[in-house]
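Predict structure. Chain length: 211.
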Amino acid sequence: GNTILGKKEFDCKFSSSPLTLSCEKREGDVQGRRVSVVDTPGLFSSQLSEEQVKTQLEEALKLSSPGPHVFLLTIQLGRFTEQEQKGLKTLEKMLSPNVSEHTMVLFTYGDRLEDTDIDQIIREDKNLQELLKNCYHVFNNRDKDLHQVTELVRKINSMVQRNGGKCYTNEMFEAAERAIKEKMKRLKRENPDIRTHRHTHRHTHTCSLVL
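Prediction complete.
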């Protein structure tokens, strides 16, 4: 968030526990455009329950009203765990399948690549290929040059145009919730013994980003 906005707006330091436990929204001018960034707890937060993380995502939708144009799924390079492999699917299950159309993977700590080609890493990892089916970008945390932000903004603009300028709205989320409830009701009618327990995973005018 700080790199995108070009100024220190969010707490950012090394810590053994997550720094973000609730949503925070900040705004700024980026490449001549007003941008709002909403920082959320990680999908797999160790300090929040799955339901609490889901609640924070719902809050992020409200903060970015009428909705975010892009979700940035941030992953540290060199730390691609099994949970993170399921990151996009987790987001789809919590919000709705079409959230993937508004999601971009943002790799941080690109400086760890050194002379390694990111495309080579992707070609060698089928799980990574599936996660990156839409779009991705790499941030070098040591590089203060604005070119990486310029390139990210270009990719975000392309995604927004591809979606017809539409953002992911709270109405889309509520429609997905209704569809899930109807499906569970139908399954219960067909099999009265079924347990209707929904497992929720932990998990751009102004251009709105949720990360």
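Summary: The longest helix spans residues 170-190.
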